[in-house]
Amino acid sequence: GENVEQHPSTLSVQEGDSAVIKCTYSDSASNYFPWYKQELGKRPQLIIDIRSNVGEKKDQRIAVTLNKTAKHFSLHITETQPEDSAVYFCAATDYNQGGKLIFGQGTELSVKP
Amino acid sequence: EAGVAQSPRYKIIEKRQSVAFWCNPISGHATLYWYQQILGQGPKLLIQFQNNGVVDDSQLPKDRFSAERLKGVDSTLKIQPAKLEDSAVYLCASSLVGSHPLNEQFFGPGTRLTVL
Question: Within chain A, which residues score under 50 in pLDDT?
Answer without folding.
Answer: none
